[in-house]
Design a protein that fits this description.
It is built from 16 helices and 18 strands. With about 500 residues, it is an alpha+beta fold. Helix 14 packs across helix 15.
Length: about 500
């Protein structure tokens, strides 16, 4: 408290008031100075600015701004009696002659200002680092995601950060940044065990600073009960306008408060970029596949169509010279061969496109209807499945039609025309169940093991009259549905085509 009656009004100030001489000696103070510094009035009477301010020289330097202009504003630490340093802003002015001190300053605690400034600077650094990560062309997409997860963990102060993919009821960790090895890339857990199921189903960012406090209904998940996930923030990522998975951060320690709006915004920004990156990768893969397909088609067209064109040209010339009907017939067969090849090429070109709406298809009756369109006087169909699959009916008809036709016309992909040859032998085609799919097999001569890797290539054929596109169409349609297909030996030694990963 001021010891001069005419200055007692200074005690009404909440801010620290100090009057001091040119030497820095403290001459006047108010009660706030006593309360904040912890010094007694007697101690302040013997103190100098150097005892109270870390940057006292900013106010006591004879060549400094205060002496030259008569006023100055400085930011420095106020040092208390017990050694604590408090961020303060001092506004000092020269006092008129006859005043109780040469200078006077009012100090205001700017701790919150410093905190806000630190928060702003930290956020600017985070955004700058995020930009540098996503703009770095030397990094692969996976490396960029890893760097974002590491940055996010630092900013959010969590032990775990993951990019995960949702596949049905499975939740697969694709990229992981964590404080330990309790979770690693490639691990698969049930989707219902995770909070990510909710983020994905609601298609919006889920924010749980304390799972038990903020969403007690989620505490029965395995993630909380067994893994101890107690705080969570995660956003869905999208590819082709559908939820691909989640980009999330979590910890086993709950937060006292909630995640800040800034932290939610950061996760949203990162997840949106990841969605963009995944979409870009998928689009790039599709374009590359299309380019490869176009190159393959160009090669096939330029090579395989040239033979029937040469036959057609030569036959027409011979027919014009001789009038021999056999030359006309040869020309007609060349035209038919080209028409067949063009039809197959168009089918193949479209077979790899994204499938349309899928429906539940009863495999037994559907296969039977496909078999009715295949010329098969000496062929038998045996259906040993009651499976229902979700598929694009048009594409599935292409797949089954080509397999049935291939089996019937060739007895298998490596034999001659078995059903129509002079021996009168017939071929039996069987469609049956597999774990997670179905198979189509025949009892023909089969496919040699060394040739099984080639059969799905465009243009592969063991028949002089075949275009070689049938099994390529089968592979493309299977891939468009997300199915895996392989060829092996059937029970009777014929060709067996197995399809797995088929949704019921």
């Amino acid at each position: 408290m001021c010891d001069r009656p005419e200055l007692v009004f200074l005690d009404a100030l909440d801010d620290v008031f100090l009057g001091f001489e040119e030497t820095g000696a403290v001459a006047v103070w108010n009660s706030a100075a006593v309360e904040v510094t912890g010094y007694s009035a007697a101690e302040l009477a013997d103190a100098t600015l150097a005892d109270l301010l870390a940057g006292a020289e900013l106010l006591t330097d004879p060549e400094g701004e205060l002496f030259e202009s008569g006023s100055a504003v400085v930011e420095t630490d106020l040092v208390t009696a017990d050694g604590k340093r408090l961020p303060y802003e001092f506004k000092a002015h020269r006092l008129p002659e006859g005043s109780p001190a040469a200078f006077a300053g009012i100090g205001r605690d700017v701790t919150e200002r410093y905190r806000r400034r630190d928060r702003v600077e930290r956020r600017e650094r985070a955004l700058r680092e995020m930009y540098e990560i996503i703009a770095d062309r030397e990094l692969s997409f996976s490396e960029q995601v890893e760097a974002l997860l590491s940055l996010g963990r630092t900013e959010l102060d969590t032990d775990y950060g993951t990019l995960s993919k949702i596949d049905g009821e499975e939740y697969r960790f694709e990229i992981v940044d964590s404080a330990d090895d309790s979770v690693e890339a490639g691990d698969v857990v049930p989707l219902p065990a995770t909070n990510c199921e909710r983020a994905a189903s609601e298609e919006q960012t889920l924010v749980l600073g304390d799972v038990a406090r903020d969403a007690p209904e989620e505490t029965d998940r395995t993630g909380y009960v067994e893994w101890g996930v107690s705080c969570y923030i995660g956003a869905p990522v999208f590819v082709d306008d559908a939820v691909y998975g989640t980009f999330c951060f979590y910890d086993t320690e709950p937060r006292e408060g909630q995640f800040l709006d800034w932290e939610v915004t950061l996760v949203d920004l990162m997840s949106r970029w990841v969605s963009y990156g995944l979409q870009r990768e998928r689009t790039t893969d599709r374009l590359q596949e299309q380019n490869e397909r176009l190159e393959r088609f160009a090669s096939i067209v330029s090579h395989d169509l040239r033979n029937p064109l040469n036959v057609l040209k030569g036959s027409i010339e011979l027919a014009a010279d001789s009038g021999d009907r056999e030359n006309v017939e040869r020309a007609r067969r060349a035209v038919e061969q080209m028409e067949t090849m063009i039809d197959d090429l168009l089918t193949l070109a479209r077979s790899g496109e994204a499938i349309g709406e899928t429906t539940a298809v009863e495999l037994s009756s559907f296969t039977t209807s496909c078999f009715e369109t295949v010329p098969a006087e000496r062929a038998t169909l045996s259906v040993e499945t009651d499976r229902t699959v979700h598929a694009d009916e048009t594409r599935l008809r292409q797949l089954l039609g080509n397999l049935l036709k291939n089996a019937v016309e060739h007895g298998s992909t490596s034999g001659g025309p078995k059903a129509d040859d002079a021996t009168g032998e017939s071929v039996t085609v069987t469609v049956g169940d597999l774990d997670g799919g179905f198979y189509v097999e025949d009892d023909g001569p089969g496919i040699p093991a060394e040739k099984r890797e080639e059969v799905f290539e465009s243009g592969y054929s063991t028949s002089n009259g075949g275009t070689g596109f049938g099994l390529a169409i089968v592979a493309e349609v299977a891939d468009a549905h997300g199915w895996d297909v392989c060829v092996t030996e059937g029970a009777a030694g014929g060709a067996r085509f197995e399809f797995t990963g088929v949704e019921n």
